[in-house]
């Protein structure tokens, strides 16, 4: 992408609505697919830096929701968690690529039984908590047990739990012993599964398997000082204001090749306004500063400043695993040709502008991408540049019973989603559809989409699910059937249910095999499902994050959507 | 005067209870369900039910209200059956996010808000009343026109605009002042009064630009009205000095409406200067409220709402009392 | 400065006051003359806009430091007040000249006790303790006929009745025993029974203290009751000056004649009032000739249409001058 293109994008981004009203941004001449792909290549600042020492100052607009690995569904917590807790397997970030599963506390990625129903892990030797006590299999088990106490932990991660046997377990506080995990000795953890699950290593990379010693469990207050098993420990934590991490002397780097743990300390400023964060970073007022805020704390209006060569040099960037789609309610818009016509009529390039332009997202052709295990090429009639295909759309609906009135629901906190609705309104008018915009309280947004109030059209986003490196954990939740296979699944927002595809997916869930071979089957079924247009891919996130001039090895996490804390370092 | 105070006080208590009930009801019946907010995108009905238990929202509405209000009078155990914990008096519940006592969160935020408020109030009162008086005394002259012109610019500058401009100019560009830090909550800390002053100077100025513009207008128009009053002519006829006429006779009457304004403004400012705190990264009450509201942290949002209401009501009562002290005609009522 | 005993205490000579406004210059007073002897009461009567209030304000120096232009002489005991600065004038206000106003409620500060306001007036010119000043104020309240003055000292203006308030105003004005008291419509805002009481009080106090009084009013009845001398103002000038008796018996200026004719009296209650037709001249553009010419029923008596072209001067005999061309035509008027 050349200078003028970026300047044009900056302009369209700031012009926002006005341009939308004229039908969206025009594609820049000469901006070919190849050039585009290049533009979205990951950029890492100060790659290959290995010097230890110094401090990294993390600016955040608000405190962490929680630091308790047993009560966290948040990427920010997962990112900082790499510094103070370890899990059996680690999802190791590489900018632009889905995280790679690597052994962490365990010696390998786990040994599955032949039937795929048990997975066995052996802990490395010499692992210790920050207080010097040894990390045992019991601590891993207890950590998982806590996540079943959902009447205590509203944010307990559930991906692993839903795969394990002993479903009715109520947690360690009044549920007794958990049958889903055995700990035959202090080094061995055996998981019992309901069904084979090829991506199981990804499930044990989740914070569920962070070790928690039972004696140190302070329940909801554990968030104030989770006992460290990682390279850093919490030295001070002033809620809502600041936190300081220092080296954990009981962490043995020999057991941990994944974390370079370069800085001596991390400081977190937890109440810096977003506008101030972007100002501070752009101005390089603290050369050791980074941020974990989404979009690097940047606003669409900052896009122009990112072209300043001095700033560009300090900007880490990369595609994320997160893709936004438009769900078409298949229960209210029953005709797949009508859905396809709607999909073709939508000006996705104009939608991209609402997301801040190309700087903030790439027009997506599918929910899944080639970097994921099990990907097979996907077919779609959507224009790769995001332009609407009106003639084709109109041809499709000829003689069809097209709904006169449809409702688009949007989360009410972000003007962007309302603006997307305005774009859709104009696009669908071309098909004679009158689109109404209905705000939905952001806090309950997904609950509403799952319930009776699901509108005809609604946006949703997905970042890859339990295993962002595998196609399955995107496909199954988003278009898959319910647990019994008889209807659509709970988070299947378009309520897509094709009996044949659903049956195949249901069977695939219980099939034993490798992630690769099963993934290909999932991807093939998904491609079939997508010919019915239950959803329209919109934009895949591309995030830039400006860092201070002394920050090195700053890579954009595909899963974290921010600078990966496990590898970042500082010149000092 | 005593019965006047008693009546105001009783009315205040009643009003606070009404407000607590209304606030509680609004949050309960509001569109945002904290339980649903707590479990996110893959939230099954079962998970919502579990979250409801965890948040103590499974009980009947009135029970919840009485439990909540009882915390104002005594310590009690809060939390789900699996995680009961003592919430010490005065208990406003525990944060859904951090599990801290809400009172702890507010107590932590309040010094920041006080820091922002006290400096801003002093600055805008001195500037607003001073310039307003000056404009009134120089009515129609250049000074007056300059002040009135400046005020109409100031009054139309919203805090986000002045705030960002000040940040860009004094911090980013000229590098004269540091970015506001959350390490300085009061003038008594390690940074000392000087550090505190510099840290809060820009928020004060941003607030003062807006507020003093309003105070200039009110002061000027009220002073002009007062200067034309018969009793001002009387004061002059007595042979009083100009200073005595303007301040002892004029300002006393002309600034009464300013006292009302000031009281109410201080009251609402203590409930959190949301925009100012957000822009300048001051983790005060307003800042806390915004984050709590965004993350569906009901106990914190509610406590701050009630506290803001409390401050405004108390400010109203204080203004009433101040009025009675200043203007003897009011005391009869 | 020494003043001969027989010289008038107050002499106003060719007083002119004008105010610049957006519409032009308003000529409020246009050559006012007045003399007042010690211990005498003079009434200034006229319609609203005739310049009587502006004249009294000029006397108090209240027009200093404003946009008004004041020329001419205001000689008080031989000292020209018009040449004094605001600061110098302050020593006169309250001390030598005091003033009471039409509406005592608005003229008193609503936030201070009545007694304190009187004591303040005393302390401005007398270097005494607050306590001593308070005692003076209490005494003064008693002198103006306020019952239980000690208790009423701490009361606020709104707690007084209208009459009591005006008594208190008088107390405030007289507390420094001024040589001259200007009473600007002191009874207009009061109801009729109280009016008489206040006028009686003024009379009494004047006799007691020997203070000269200028009573500004539009009410000839009030003038008849308390004044020795009367000055009739019209268009910012004095059109006639006479003793009360002379004025009522022998009004010389056609305007005075009109005024008297329009005055309701017990004797002529049943008759129709005959107000003077027309309006006072615009103070923005004064006519060249007599200011009353437009409304005057007697212009035909003056030859050559002089009323419209020449402004008459104040002339007359027997200390009863009138500003009318007819005066100069009848130099040998008989003494009544």
Automatic annotation (TrEMBL), chain A:
Positions of the Solute-binding protein family domain: 100-467
GO MF annotations in UniProt: peptide transmembrane transporter activity
Biological-process GO terms, alphabetical: peptide transport
Keywords in alphabetical order: Signal
Keyword Lipoprotein appears in the UniProt entry: no
Entries under SUPFAM superfamilies matching the protein: Periplasmic binding protein-like II (SSF53850)
Presence of the UniProt keyword Acyltransferase in the record: no
Gene Ontology cellular component terms for the protein in this record: ATP-binding cassette (ABC) transporter complex; periplasmic space
Signal peptide: 1-20
InterPro entries found in the cross-reference section: Peptide/Ni-bd (IPR030678), SBP_5 (IPR039424), SBP_5_dom (IPR000914)
Any Pfam family the entry gives: SBP_bac_5
Protein name, entry field: ABC transporter substrate-binding protein
Organism of provenance: Streptomyces antnestii
TrEMBL record, chain B:
Ranges annotated as spanning the membrane: 112-134, 146-171, 197-216, 258-280, 300-326
Organism: Streptomyces antnestii
Predominant cellular place of this UniProt entry's protein: membrane
Keywords: Cell membrane, Membrane, Transmembrane, Transmembrane helix, Transport
Positions of the ABC transmembrane type-1 domain: 110-319
Gene3D superfamilies named among the record's database cross-references: MetI-like
Similarity annotation: Belongs to the binding-protein-dependent transport system permease family.
UniProt GO cellular component terms: plasma membrane
Keyword Transcription regulation appears in the UniProt entry: no
Cell compartments where the protein resides: Cell membrane
Membrane topology value: Multi-pass membrane protein
Official protein name in the record: ABC transporter permease
Source organism phylogeny: Bacteria, Bacillati, Actinomycetota, Actinomycetes, Kitasatosporales
InterPro entries cross-referenced by the UniProt entry: BPD_transp_1_N, MetI-like, MetI-like_sf
One BP annotation, GO: transmembrane transport
One Pfam short name: BPD_transp_1_N
Highest taxon above the source species: Bacteria
TrEMBL record, chain C:
Signal peptide annotation: none
GO MF terms held by the record: ATP binding; ATP hydrolysis activity
SUPFAM superfamilies: P-loop containing nucleoside triphosphate hydrolases (SSF52540)
CDD domains registered for this protein in UniProt: ABC_NikE_OppD_transporters
Chain segments annotated as transmembrane: none
Protein name (database record): ABC transporter ATP-binding protein
PANTHER family the UniProt entry points to: DIPEPTIDE TRANSPORT ATP-BINDING PROTEIN DPPD (PTHR43297:SF2), OLIGOPEPTIDE TRANSPORT ATP-BINDING PROTEIN APPD (PTHR43297)
Membrane topology: Peripheral membrane protein
Subcellular location: Cell membrane
GO cellular component terms attached to this protein's record: plasma membrane
Species name: Streptomyces antnestii
GO BP, sorted A to Z: peptide transport
Coiled-coil parts of chain: none
Family note: Belongs to the ABC transporter superfamily.
ABC transporter domain mapped to chain residues: 12-260
Keywords annotated in UniProt: ATP-binding, Cell membrane, Membrane, Nucleotide-binding, Transport
């Amino acid at each position: 992408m050349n200078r003028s293109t970026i300047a044009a994008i900056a302009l369209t981004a700031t012009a926002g609505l006005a341009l939308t009203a004229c039908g969206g941004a025009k594609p820049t001449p000469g901006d070919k697919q190849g050039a585009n792909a290049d533009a979205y290549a990951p950029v890492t600042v100060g790659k290959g830096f290995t010097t230890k020492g110094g401090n990294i100052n993390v600016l955040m607009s608000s405190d962490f929701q929680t630091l308790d690995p047993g009560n966290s569904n948040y990427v920010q917590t997962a990112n900082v968690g790499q510094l103070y807790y370890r899990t059996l397997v680690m999802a190791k970030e590489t900018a632009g690529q889905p995280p790679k599963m690597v052994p962490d506390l365990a010696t390998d990625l786990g040994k599955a039984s032949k039937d795929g129903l048990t997975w066995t892990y052996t802990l490395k030797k010499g692992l210790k908590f920050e207080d010097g006590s040894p990390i045992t299999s019991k601590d891993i088990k207890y950590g998982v047990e806590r996540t079943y106490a959902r009447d205590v932990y509203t944010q307990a991660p559930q991906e692993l739990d839903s795969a394990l046997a002993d479903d009715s377990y109520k947690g360690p506080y009044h549920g007794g012993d958990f049958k889903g995990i055995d700990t035959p000795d202090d080094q061995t953890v055996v998981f019992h599964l309901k069904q084979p699950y090829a991506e199981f290593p990804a499930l044990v990379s989740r914070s569920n398997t962070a070790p928690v010693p039972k004696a140190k469990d302070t329940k909801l207050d554990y968030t104030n000082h989770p006992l460290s098993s990682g390279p850093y420990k919490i030295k001070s934590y002033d809620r809502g204001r600041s936190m300081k991490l220092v080296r954990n002397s009981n962490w043995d780097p020999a057991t941990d090749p994944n974390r370079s743990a370069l800085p001596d300390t991390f400081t977190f400023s937890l109440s810096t306004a977003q506008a101030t964060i972007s100002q501070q970073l752009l101005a390089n007022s603290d050369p050791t500063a980074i941020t974990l805020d989404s979009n690097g704390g940047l606003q669409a209006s900052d896009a122009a400043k990112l072209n300043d060569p001095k700033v560009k040099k300090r900007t880490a960037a990369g595609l994320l695993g997160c893709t936004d789609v438009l769900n078409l309610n298949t229960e209210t818009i029953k005709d797949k040709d009508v859905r396809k016509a709607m999909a073709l009529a939508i000006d996705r390039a104009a939608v991209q502008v609402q997301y801040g332009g190309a700087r903030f997202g790439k027009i997506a052709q599918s929910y899944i991408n080639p970097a994921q295990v099990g990907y097979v090429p996907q077919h779609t009639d959507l224009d790769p540049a995001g332009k609407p295909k009106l003639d084709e759309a109109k041809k499709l609906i000829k003689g069809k019973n097209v709904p006169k009135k449809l409702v688009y629901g949007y989360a009410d906190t972000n003007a962007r989603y309302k603006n997307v609705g305005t774009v859709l309104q104009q696009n669908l008018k071309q098909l004679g559809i009158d689109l109404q915009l209905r705000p939905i309280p952001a806090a309950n947004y997904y609950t509403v989409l799952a319930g009776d109030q699901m509108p005809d059209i609604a946006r949703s986003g997905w970042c890859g699910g339990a295993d962002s490196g595998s196609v399955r954990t995107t496909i199954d939740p988003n278009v898959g059937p319910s647990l019994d296979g008889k209807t659509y699944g709970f988070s299947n927002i378009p309520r897509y249910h094709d009996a044949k595809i659903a049956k195949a997916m249901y069977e695939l869930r219980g099939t034993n095999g490798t992630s690769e071979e099963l993934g290909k089957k999932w991807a093939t079924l998904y491609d079939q499902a997508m010919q019915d247009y239950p959803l329209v891919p919109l934009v895949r996130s591309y995030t830039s994050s400006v860092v201070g001039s002394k920050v090195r090895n700053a890579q954009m996490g595909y899963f974290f959507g921010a600078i990966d804390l496990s590898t970042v370092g500082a010149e000092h | 005067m005593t019965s006047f105070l008693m009546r105001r006080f009783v009315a205040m208590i009643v009003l606070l209870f009404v407000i607590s009930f209304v606030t509680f009801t609004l949050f309960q019946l509001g569109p945002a369900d904290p339980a649903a907010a707590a479990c996110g995108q893959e939230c099954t009905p079962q998970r919502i039910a579990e979250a409801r238990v965890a948040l103590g929202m499974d009980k009947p509405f009135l029970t919840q209200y009485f439990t909540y209000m009882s915390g104002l009078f005594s310590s009690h155990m809060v939390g789900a059956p699996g995680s009961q914990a003592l919430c010490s008096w005065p208990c406003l519940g525990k944060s859904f996010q951090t599990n801290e006592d809400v009172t702890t969160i507010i107590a932590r935020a309040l010094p920041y808000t006080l820091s922002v408020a006290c400096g801003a109030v002093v600055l805008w009162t001195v500037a607003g009343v001073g310039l307003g008086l000056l404009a009134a005394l120089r009515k129609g002259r250049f000074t007056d026109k300059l002040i009135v012109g400046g005020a109409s610019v100031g009054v139309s500058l919203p805090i986000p605009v002045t705030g960002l401009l000040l940040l860009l100019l004094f911090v980013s560009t000229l590098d004269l002042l540091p970015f506001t830090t959350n390490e300085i909550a009061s003038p008594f800390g390690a940074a000392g009064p000087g550090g505190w002053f510099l840290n809060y100077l820009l928020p004060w100025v941003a607030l003062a630009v807006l507020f003093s513009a309003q105070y200039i207008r009110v002061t000027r128009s009220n002073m002009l009205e007062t200067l034309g009053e018969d009793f001002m002519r009387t004061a002059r006829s007595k042979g009083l000095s100009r200073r005595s006429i303007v301040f002892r006779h004029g300002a006393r009457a002309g600034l009464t409406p300013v006292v009302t304004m000031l009281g109410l403004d201080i009251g609402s400012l203590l409930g959190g200067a949301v925009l100012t705190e957000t822009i300048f990264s001051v983790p005060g009450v307003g800042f806390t409220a915004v984050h709590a509201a965004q993350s569906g942290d009901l106990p914190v949002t509610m406590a701050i709402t009630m506290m803001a209401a409390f401050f405004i009501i108390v400010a109203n009562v204080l203004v009433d009392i101040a009025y009675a002290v200043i203007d003897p005609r009011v005391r009869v009522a | 400065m020494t003043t001969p005993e027989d010289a008038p205490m107050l002499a106003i000579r060719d007083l002119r006051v004008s105010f610049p406004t957006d519409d032009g210059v308003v000529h409020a007073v246009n050559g006012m003359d007045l003399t007042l002897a010690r211990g005498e009461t003079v009434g200034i009567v006229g319609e609203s806009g005739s310049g009587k209030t502006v004249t009294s304000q000029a006397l108090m120096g209240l027009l200093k430091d404003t946009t008004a232009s004041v020329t001419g002489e205001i000689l008080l005991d031989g000292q020209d007040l018009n040449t004094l600065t605001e600061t110098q004038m302050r020593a006169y206000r309250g001390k030598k000249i005091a003033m009471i106003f039409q509406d005592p409620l608005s003229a008193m500060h609503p936030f201070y006790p009545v007694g304190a306001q009187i004591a303040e007036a005393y302390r401005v010119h007398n270097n005494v303790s607050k306590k001593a000043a308070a005692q003076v104020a209490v005494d003064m309240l008693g002198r103006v006929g306020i019952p239980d003055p000690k208790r009423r000292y701490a009361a606020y203006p709104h707690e007084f009745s209208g009459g009591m308030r005006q008594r208190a105003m008088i107390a405030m004005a007289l507390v420094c025993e001024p040589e001259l008291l200007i009473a600007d419509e002191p009874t207009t805002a009061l109801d009729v029974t109280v009016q008489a009481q206040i006028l009686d009080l003024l009379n009494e106090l004047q006799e007691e203290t020997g203070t000269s009084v200028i009573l500004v009013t539009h009410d000839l009845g009030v003038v008849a009751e308390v004044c020795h001398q009367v000055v009739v103002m019209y268009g910012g000038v004095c059109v006639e000056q006479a003793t009360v008796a002379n004025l009522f018996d022998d009004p010389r200026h056609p305007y005075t004649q009109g005024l008297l004719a329009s005055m309701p009296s017990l004797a002529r209650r049943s008759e129709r009032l005959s107000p003077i037709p027309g309006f006072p001249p615009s103070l923005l553009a004064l006519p060249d000739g007599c200011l009353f010419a437009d409304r005057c029923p007697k212009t035909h008596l003056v030859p050559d249409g002089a009323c419209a072209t020449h402004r008459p001067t104040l002339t007359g005999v027997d200390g009863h001058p009138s500003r009318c061309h007819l005066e100069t035509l009848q130099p040998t008027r008989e003494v009544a």
